[in-house]
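Students often ask what a holo structure prediction actually looks like on paper. The answer is less mysterious than it sounds. You provide the chain, you provide the ligand, and the output is a string of discrete structure tokens encoding the 3D arrangement of the protein together with farnesyl diphosphate.
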Amino acid sequence: MMELSSTDLEKGWDSDKLPCHIAIIMDGNGRWAQRRALPRTAGHAAGAETFRRIATYCKDIGIKYLTIYAFSTENWKRPPAEVKVIMELLEKYLHEALGKMEKDRVKMKFFGDVTVLSPKLQELIAQTEELSAKFEGVQINICVNYGGRDEIVRAAENYVSDVKNGRIADEKLTEESFSRYMYSAGMPDPDLVIRPSGELRLSNFLIWQTAYSELYYTDVLWPDFSEQELDKAIVSYQNRNRRFGGI
Ligand code: FPP
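The corresponding structure tokens follow.
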């Protein structure tokens, strides 16, 4: 058995068995704000701050992929003022990310149909994806206007269109070949999915990719989610026995 380093002992997890890909549903921003008699949008601002901290922590401890649910295809049902603030927070984050990209060397990708976002946001997304493509450290995937079912339907449409146009041979479709049509093409599936705020569901998040993911739920609201909370989730993950359908 490998000896645990002092850092491992401090954090409680084994650095040789870290999840390669962590996916997080950032939930509970609204309730966090409500409990402080603040507008819901203050909760989103605090949530964006937590995202910065957790992304930095993931990078520091050596997580390879972090996928975050920022805005779902269903979130358009929220009041326009709230949607506007979420988009502004995203814009602010991308501005900052671009500013320190050479230093951080984080690779960024966006999952979802971004063509309906503001031209400014689309431009920022294109720039961050393009400029960060060369980096090979942690990869952060931000899901915006993302829905798992929508992703699968788009994948099917694109596959059919490729066959029709002769871009690919009309061979038997396999799980592996179909995966290449997902936003996550070429990436490993999430090992660990974290949902804070006490809700026990996936809410249309990466439903294709999470077939064998370990799920971790906590009552902590996303703005209060700390590095120590992530440690706890990793320890829980490392105590699971992943069988992938075997015995
Ligand atoms: C869910 O909490 C949160 C969202 C729908 C928005 C998350 C967006 C951000 C934190 C800002 C932008 C993102 C980045 C990456 C900078 P909720 O509002 O559903 O909480 P509730 O269930 O308590 O109401």
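Residues 36 and 43 are 9 Å apart (CA to CA).
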